[in-house]
Structure formats: structure tokens, C-alpha cells
Amino acid sequence: MHEVHKEPAMQTNPIAMTVAEAKAKIGVGTTKFYELLNEGKIDAVKIGRKTLILTNSLEKYVANLPRRPVKR
User: Fold this and answer.
1) Between helices 19-26 and 55-63, what is the axis angle to 10°?
2) Cβ contacts of residue 61 below 8 Å, gap of 6+?
3) Is 28 exposed, middle or buried (0-12, 13-18, 19+ CB in 10 A)?
4) 7-45, pLDDT tens digit by residue?
5) What average pLDDT does range 42-50 have in this prediction?
6) Which of 4, 45, 48, 57 has a CA-to-CA distance to 66 between 20 and 30 Å?
């Protein structure tokens, strides 16, 4: 019998994303996003010239935002 080797499935929750992906995910513009980065509220890493946002940092930031009731 022949063994079938499968490629590992793509990660559904990547450990990092681009700035554009992160901005879109939380719905803020460029200026606000870079404010959050500069204030240390969201963590990023550099790989060469590319800035990547750590997914767990972004999720933690959103999870810690104050909760407000939605008005209709």
C-alpha cells in the first residue's frame, strides 16, 4: 500500500497579519491604527521592511475595550 502524505492545512487563525488586514478587522483608519501602535496598545513585529500585527495582541485589545449598550 502507498501512504498518502497531505500538506498541512493552512492555519485558520494566523499568528500575525498585515497592517491593512488588522485595520480592516477592527474597522479603524490608518491614523488611529498607528496611534494605537505608538501608544503600545497593539503589538507589532518587523520582518525586513514589513510590519506585522500580532493577532493575539489585536484580539486582546478589542476584548478589553469598554462595553456599551447599543442604542436603537
Assistant:
1) 20
2) 26, 36, 41, 42
3) middle
4) 555 557 789 999 999 999 999 999 999 999 999 999 999
5) 97
6) 45
